[in-house]
Amino acid sequence: xxxxxxxxxxxxxxxNTSELHLVTLDIATGEFYLKASVPSDIADRETLCLxxxxxxxxxxxxxxxxxxxxxxxxxxxxWQLTPIRQMMVGPDLSSCAVTDESNTLLIAEEGTGIWxxxxxxxxxxxxxxxxFPSGPELExxxxxxxxxxxxxxxxxxxxxERGQRHRQWPLAAERELKSVNxxxxxxxxxxxxxxxxxxxxxxxxxxxxxxxxxxxxxxxxLSADVQTTPVNRYGDAxxxxxxxxxxxxxxxxxxxxxxxxYGLNVYSLTGEQLQSLPTGRVNNVDVRYQIDTPAGKQxxxxxSNRSSQTLSVYYISxxxxxxxxxxxxxxxxxxxxxxxxxxxGQLHTFINDTDGRYQQYAFTFTEDGPxxxxxxxxxxxxxxxxxxVDDARQVLYMGEEAAGIWQKALLQPLSAPRLIATVGxxxxxxxxxxxxxxxxxxxxxxxxxxxxxxxxxxxxxxxNRLLGTFRVGINGARQIDGVSETDxxxxxxxxxxxxxxxxxxxxxxxxxxxxTAPQNFKLISGSKLxxxxxxxx
Length: 537
Fold this sequence. Notes:
Elements: E1 7-13, E2 20-26, E3 32-38, E4 45-53, E5 56-63, E6 67-75, E7 79-88, E8 93-99, E9 104-109, E10 113-118, E11 127-131, E12 138-143, E13 149-153, E14 156-162, E15 167-170, E16 177-185, E17 188-195, E18 200-207, E19 220-223, E20 226-227, E21 238-244, E22 254-259, E23 263-268, E24 273-277, E25 282-293, E26 296-305, E27 310-316, E28 322-329, E29 335-343, E30 346-353, E31 357-366, E32 369-379, E33 384-390, E34 395-400, E35 404-409, E36 418-422, E37 431-439, E38 442-449, E39 454-459, E40 465-473, E41 489-492, E42 504-509, E43 520-525, H1 526-536
């Protein structure tokens, strides 16, 4: 088990009370130790299985209602179960197991077959079926790390091997196998089974002749340090964050997050929601600083508003209060992504449409308020969304969701966008949010690879080379879940107080669990991003 090579974690259901017992076995002494007992709720437990994900233990248990509960098993001084998610998997289930490398949750359904679900904490609830056409009374499934699994049924004196290949071992006709387990040590496969007819435990050793498989992709994993208050309702609501740096008190900097079913939310660096502005279906948001207005220098946020196909303009005071200033029209029919830039000291906003069009608006500020003039327009081949402007080099980077990342030189208005990175094995469509992180005077573009719930990092000063990808996994110590299907993100390398000395990365979490809740945003220390870059460059 994680943290100890001498202990084995065991979970068992008391068949009389449906109580869950968590036990350790000390391999050196052969002693068992009861770590915790968890009573059942209103429904009896029927199956349970353990899995190891990264350095954490997970427990799955289904009940008489057909509800599968997924927990993080905290194995500190006091063992505890932290709820992650629940799935309705149906009745007549007899057993479950998890293949650790692929994180596949296997569930045996009597008379049908073995259902395959994602065992990942951030996984979807979709499933596939390994169908057993003879309709056996499947009683038990046991999995190996490499993806093979073994199945027994009380009405068939067989042990099935499935997964990478299909084969079976016949037993004496009088056998009624109730459970099976499997383990591998070196070149030996160990199989064990319980025969209900005789009450005997059966054991066999076989040559471990597993089919050759490709190496499992080990994805670099970061964890979030803070999470925000969830948005108000379930569904695809939270989308894109921006970071406002408080120059007077960096620890009091803010995260602005769009709720595309309501408006703009404002969060502290501890994740607390401080403001919620009901300005409509705002999709993407970005911030620029010290813009000249008749009232003096002003920090300004602009968001794309799908309720009115407009630019929503917000003022940010020196103390971090956000106020809605104006709605400025565009000529787009379905506004989507947006980013800000400063060109010759003037605020510009780049906003796109789902049909691929981009428009560039230049802002002016008078006593009557803000105004925006359309100054250029161009098109990407298909739907874009995320974008970011490098103000120092006057370059616009744009994500085309199904294709890759484009670059456009802003000092050459008539220049065509240039494709600098494409989707592929490591970076999967859709390409969503993006931001620029600076480390030791070198620039790195961070982009959301939504299709595989990862984040890609490109070295902009090294011919846009892909350094690698990472994911955001569970922070068990802080009880913060991982991140999946991210839309928007933002990064800054500016120090934001002692908690974030190397800046901050903020990402939208498309599936907020542990426990299940509406979407929110996760905050990751820039120190973790910097360490990833140093290892990969």
